Amino acid sequence: DQQVKQNSPSLSVQEGRISILNCDYTNSMFDYFLWYKKYPAEGPTFLISISSIKDKNEDGRFTVFLNKSAKHLSLHIVPSQPGDSAVYFCAASEAGGYQKVTFGTGTKLQVIP
Amino acid sequence: KAGVTQTPRYLIKTRGQQVTLSCSPISGHRSVSWYQQTPGQGLQFLFEYFSETQRNKGNFPGRFSGRQFSNSRSEMNVSTLELGDSALYLCASSLLDTQYFGPGTRLTVL
Prior knowledge:
A: mainly beta; 6-stranded mixed beta sheet; 5-stranded antiparallel beta sheet; globular; B: mainly beta; 7-stranded mixed beta sheet
């Protein structure tokens, strides 16, 4: 049972435009969400996180939106750059159990120059 | 500060063999988690150790085991390897809420 789902395995965006990566979850106990970026042959790198008490968190070009009622979160990258091309993983954890993090299957983003 | 290191980076084994992977966390981090990454399943949680104790465990068979040493270094062992165990095994260490990943060990089972 995939508790964290990224339904788009890939996404192509023109440089300078907005990239929107989506993630859905089923476990209502999840209250902390993270996005990781992964380049080939490297481990995932933490990008941005959001707690369930917020609905938006922004860090530079990256913004994460959380819609708890829809059990949906999204990552916006504006403007997209070629260096953003990577696989993006959505992850979630429960209260007090951040060590057990459930990951989605990833979305491969390609930013076209 | 040095990042998470994993050894070896690549490993080729045959079915039935056993393998031990090593992870050195970031200095000061006491929590170490292990994940298996495969193309179809994404990142799946194996287990997490904190202060030499297994604190969380994912849904993997008993062939997968681990341990953590007093210096927080961790090892993961897989016995009686199967073809389906071929994957990238990632280790992550954390101090608070954010996990920092190592580069992974690519295991190929022939």
